[in-house]
């Protein structure tokens, strides 16, 4: 199915998904346009990270109903790598270590794969080395990380910076950051947020999955959504995150006027 409105980057309609035999997402709706930043908040177990993984096509998360349109294309049947080549990026809450695979080789392979998909020129090792070192300056990363195995022995903050470095290289149309602020001290949070903000543009979009207002002090969202029991139950502007910080989630759970999850 193709949508005529080219400003819409992501449309999620009545999304249902299971993990093993348990239904986690129960009719989630969301629309994201180019140039927008959306924050998704909610208590543990509300389905936030499940939603992020379903978008990326994680094989352990089975979509059982609904529709996901990305850049006008139904991506339901696409494998994770096909979604990535199409311009969808997921930064993991817990990035995995890949012993024996050098970070620079991993990053160059990912970059050239996307370049090839876009019909653009690939970079040889020397060209890529210059290119990636410039990107690393956005995140105050030591170039020595290029010679180490992917995430092996990295601190939590270093792993998160490495995820945003991948985002900077791949230049996705839609980046989903799954609790990127988790485990970061305030200095690392500022650096990561600075890198994310420099990558945001009117041609791409960003979804932030987070528990905390503090990330939104540095990356200002256009919309804040609250998830509960596998659905988006309230949508508002950035002020909603401040209300959640001050009052928690109980007042929303008792609110009988619940938003559909599709912003006005």
UniProtKB/TrEMBL annotation:
PROSITE patterns: ABC_TRANSPORTER_1, ABC_TRANSPORTER_2. The gene is sufC. Belongs to the ABC transporter superfamily. Ycf16 family. Coiled coil: none annotated. One of its GO terms (molecular function) is ATP binding. This is Component of SufBCD complex, ATP-binding component of ABC superfamily. InterPro entries: AAA+_ATPase, ABC_transporter-like_ATP-bd, ABC_transporter-like_CS, FeS-cluster_ATPase_SufC, P-loop_NTPase. The lineage of its organism: Bacteria, Pseudomonadati, Pseudomonadota, Betaproteobacteria, Nitrosomonadales. Keywords: ATP-binding, Cell membrane, Membrane, Nucleotide-binding. Residues 10-254 form the ABC transporter domain. Pfam families: ABC_tran.
